[in-house]
Structure formats: C-alpha cells, structure tokens
Amino acid sequence: MSLDQQYDVSCGPLVGDLTERLRDHAVDHVRRCCADQLAGRPEARVAAEALPGYVSGGKLLRSTFALVGWSCGRGGSDAAMRAVASLELLHCFALVQDDVMDGSPRRRGRPALHVTLSAWHREQGLSGSAERFGASAATLFGDLLLVWAEQMLRESGLDDADLARAWPLYDAMRAELVVGQLSDLVNDTRAEPTWESVLDVARRKSGNYTVRRPLEFGAALAGCDPSVTAPLSRYGALVGEAFQLRDDVLGVFGHPSTTGKPAGDDLRNRTATSLVVVARDRAGPAQRRAMRALAHLDHVDADAVAAWQDLICDTGAPERIEEIITARVDDALAAIGCADVPEHARDALTSLAHRCTDRRD
Amino acid sequence: MSLDQQYDVSCGPLVGDLTERLRDHAVDHVRRCCADQLAGRPEARVAAEALPGYVSGGKLLRSTFALVGWSCGRGGSDAAMRAVASLELLHCFALVQDDVMDGSPRRRGRPALHVTLSAWHREQGLSGSAERFGASAATLFGDLLLVWAEQMLRESGLDDADLARAWPLYDAMRAELVVGQLSDLVNDTRAEPTWESVLDVARRKSGNYTVRRPLEFGAALAGCDPSVTAPLSRYGALVGEAFQLRDDVLGVFGHPSTTGKPAGDDLRNRTATSLVVVARDRAGPAQRRAMRALAHLDHVDADAVAAWQDLICDTGAPERIEEIITARVDDALAAIGCADVPEHARDALTSLAHRCTDRRD
User: Fold this and answer.
1) Considering only alpha carbons, which residue of chain A is nearest residue B120?
2) Confidence of residue A263 (pLDDT cuts 50, 70, 90)
3) Helical H runs in B186-316?
4) pLDDT of A6 higher than 50
5) A269 to chain B: nearest residue by CA?
6) Between chains, do B182 and A128 touch, taking CB under 8 Å as contact?
7) Minimal CB count within 10 Å: which of A22, B102, B254, B295?
8) In which family does this protein belong, per the annotation (chains A, B) (predicted)?
9) Which CATH number fits domain B159-361: 3.40.1190.20, 3.40.50.10190, 1.10.10.10, 1.10.600.10?
C-alpha cells in the first residue's frame, strides 16, 4: 500500500481501516501506561480494566480530523498516526471528568468511570463514601489521561521540529477545552442567556475543540502553508458549529440508543443550548411562560420533558436549527471547494462534514 | 554576580534570594496564562485572582531541590530557573485537587480554592449547588495548572536535548504523584494497614515526589553523570522519607499556625500515617482497643483528638519516629558526604535536610 493510499481518508472502506488503526494506537498507549504505572495497585485495577473501553468506544472524530489535516501536507507514517491518536486520550480525559461534574451515570454505552469506581468501593466494603471515592478516583484517572495524552504526542516519533510547530496550538486547545468546561458549569436555562452567547459557547466548545483545532493541529504537525490552513480553519469553525447544533438537537430529541444518554438530557439538566434558546426567542408570551415554569421545576421529570419538547416543536425552532446546520455545512464545503488542499482530503472533509452533522435518529 | 554565586544554594542569604526568584518565575507564568486564557470570563476571574497566591504561598521545596540537582552539573541561567520553578505549578495542581477530594477548608493560610469558588457562586446568586460548582471549578483550575506546568517547562528556554533527558523522569513523577493521591483515597486507619505499607506510601508520596524526583529531575536537565545522580537519589529517598515522617508527626501534634490545618487533622481524617501505625503496633491490648474505638467514632471531635494524642504519647511512638527521622537524615548526609557533588551543593543539601525535617513547633 502506497503512502498516499494509506492516507485516503475519504469515504469508503479505508475510513474504517484508518479509524481502527487510530483506535489501536490510542488503546495501545493506554494499556502500556496502565501496565507501567498502575500494576500492583488494587485500587487502580478496576479503572485499568475500564479505561481502554472508554478510549476505544468513541467515533474518533478528533483524531480523524487531525489526520486529514496532516494528510494535507504529508504522507502517512506510524508516528503521525500516534501523534493524532493522542487526541483521543485528551478527549477521554475531558469525558471522564465531565461525567464526574455532571453526575452522568453512563458514557459510551457503559457505566461512567466514577460509577464503576464507586461500585468497586462498595464491593470492597471500604469505609467512607463510595460516591466520594468514585468521583475523586475518576478525577485522578482523568488527570492521568491528560498526562498520557501529552506524553503520547511527545513520544509519537515525530521530529522535534514538527512537534514544535504544533505545541502552541496543542496548549491553546487544552486550555480552551478546560475553559469551555468551566463555562458549562455556569450554563443554566434559568439564567436566560442570549442566542449570541449560546452560539459563542457552541463555537468555543465544539466548533473549535472537535473540528477546527484538530484540523489545524494536524496541519501544523505536517508544516502546511497558510494557504492550506486558512480554508481548513474556516471549514472547521463552520462544521464544528453545525456539529454542536446537531448535538443540541439530539440533547432534546435524541434517542438514548443514539446519544448514550437519557432522552431529553439537556432539558433535565437545564442546559441552555441553541435549540432551547431559539425556541424561547420564537415563543409567544404564553409559551414562554410555560417554558420558564418547566425550567424552574424542582425536578424535570419525564412528563415535563415531553411537555417541553412539544413546546419547542410548536415554535418551529427545530426546523430553524436544521436550516442553520444545512447552511453551515454548505458554507464549509464551499470553503474547501476551491481551496489548495489535496483531492483526497477534500473528499474526506466532504464525507466527514455530513457524518458529523446528519440526523442520527 | 557570577554564575557560581547565582547558584550558591547553601544556607545563607542567597537561599532567600533564590527562593524569591523561583517564586517570581512561577507566579509570572501563572499570571501570564491567566491573562492569555481566562481574560473576559467572569466565572474565572475570582480564580485568576487567587491562583498566584496559592503558587507563591509555599516553601518552594521542590523547585529548590531541583535547582540544587541542576547546580551539580551546570551553572545558572534564567532558563534553568524557569524549568525547575515549573514544579511549583505541578505541586499547586496537586494541592488544589487534593483539597477538593479531602474537603479541606484552608490551604497556605487562605481559604482553599474550591471554598473561594463556592463563595463566589453563592455571592452571584447562581442556581444549582455552590459546593458542587466550587469542587468542579477548582478541579478544572487544577487541570489548567497541570497543563501550565508542563508548558512552562517546555518553554523554559532549555535546549531540546536537555529537556529530552528529563521528560521520562517528569512523566514518571507526574504519574507517581497522581497514583500516590489515589492510594491516599483508600488510606484509612480503620483498615489497620501494616507499618511496611504505610512506609511504602510515605516513600512513594513524599520521599519521591518532594525530594528525590526533583533532585533527579534537576540533575537530568543538567546532564549529570550517574556518579552524581546515584548519591542524590539515595539522599533524596532518605530525606524524603524523613520529611514525610515529620509531616506525620505534625499531622497529629502540629499547631494550626505551623501546619495551616486544624490540630490533629490526620486523626480527624483517620489517615493511617507512620505515627498512628507505630503507636498502634506498640500499644498494649487496652490501648489498642481504645485507639480502635476512637477511629470508629462517627465524628472524631476535639476531645477524641486529645484522647488519641495522649494514647499515642503513652506508647512512646513519637520518640521512636524522632529516632527514625534522625537516622534517615544522618544516612542521607553520609550518602552525599563523600559523593562526587560540588561543595556548594553539598552545603545546600545539608542545610535543606535539616530545614525539611526539623521540628516545626
């Protein structure tokens, strides 16, 4: 297989193959770190068994986008694969700690890590609060993933000169990710944020972290020219925003089998997402009063979720969000349509734009 | 001032001067990161104001040991100062998250970061639990400190070749630190651990992280020969263990003005430290029953602390721990007495061994 073929990340069977290879690299590194650093520690065994599952259970969007960024400048290598696969460990750090902060019970189709650790504490009959242990220990495993991610990148085998171009972006991405989580802590429907501020959070959180920064990171590792990175950035910002808008739709209407979360999770958590805010802005006075009453319930139960979903539908907000998603994807494809990127990358970006933003149920 | 004078880290006025310079470097980096990454975010402002205080409030033991390690091989430079000062940010990451996990109210003479953040949440009248917000936000600021520490080291100005020698040690130190925290979560007097296992935790936690690894890290950055690093490692393991034993004495008998924590904090938290375990092992059957009863109280109050302290004294455990501390320091000084290290470093290590392990109240 030629180097070019190795990096045919367009739609087709090779996407699957590349995704599996990225997954293998990420899981290998986690397994090796667990073996090196956690062996012989009973309180770590249950997490060491669970961590590879969390790392491998994702869609590997971030590492795939980074690989496409890389492929705009250079041919394939195992070193490059390892470097971009490290983003999956970084993402896993964020998920593990996010689940602690949100008290989320499940992640990627399995119990969240803090839940698994609490259960272990209970089974062992240890003293003290099992919940507290689960939260603290999961936070520490999140810290380890953050360290392992950076170590995997540094030890990927890429030259220091390649890495040196990407470190500033990597640091900025990590900070942006953590600061995005911080903003999420004060995100609450009841505070009635504006559409602009919600869109700003969406851009910062997903627009940047899921699509734009990984693309830029891969392109920086490969030493791409600004003529290549500028359209990638523009595409990344647009597709990232559309991805977050899709996620916001699923957060209200998605099925648990698709989202891995309870139905109407964003409503239950009173997260002020794009869909919730557009609905509020389009609502008549009576609808708006009804939404506000639901948001202020002590407990948003299944009936409240259903009533809130109906109200949102009545405003026409879902159709409006679909229009925006379509427009963002169209603009993104236009941005790379005439850009100075290789044909195989353009094909991959076209396919990925749809994969990221299409209805998923 | 000549380069050699700059690195006279022995006792005397220059120690103070060097400590201040390390402090300035650490605080500068934190301030710059806050300005770059947290500006304009109201939920971050209170932490951005508080973080420099936590970083500057310590004794800078770790960066000082690392500087001594460096000075065994090379002369002074601002790049080296920045590289070793980065350890203070790493330490601060551990403290901030540790306080969340232990629910500690104070740190370095001020409210713990999670307490400050909870208070801010309450003042702003935000919805949701202020405690939960404080814990989550402090965890995220801990994550930022972990990232900033590594960034500070990488951008210190040292050559890639110098850094390359130290990265494996740095990664191992970070993992050891996090895994040490994890072990602490299951540390409970009520589980009645053995003296050997408690000493193992003491070595891993402080023996390595506070003294040994920083020394080795500084020496690795400077490219020291094994003939230099071997005695530094031996010294570090011994002084580190003595440091932790001193800390264990203070955890039972220390005054809040010295420790910055409530009196008898380790007893209240039922932490199985060296002192507690030696006392238990030396106790007669009646004393042991009394200790066990205190450990199993629902709430270890001030009277229980006083009774437990008396029981510990009656066993002669404090004198036994003092003997061990003295023996460890003697062995450590012997290890560097005839070692191949510069005279100024030997002087500094002698002074630091006493400063780390002397009675502090």
Assistant:
1) A186
2) confident
3) 195-202, 213-222, 226-253, 256-259, 265-268, 274-282, 285-295, 302-314
4) no
5) B128
6) no
7) B102
8) Belongs to the FPP/GGPP synthase family.
9) 1.10.600.10
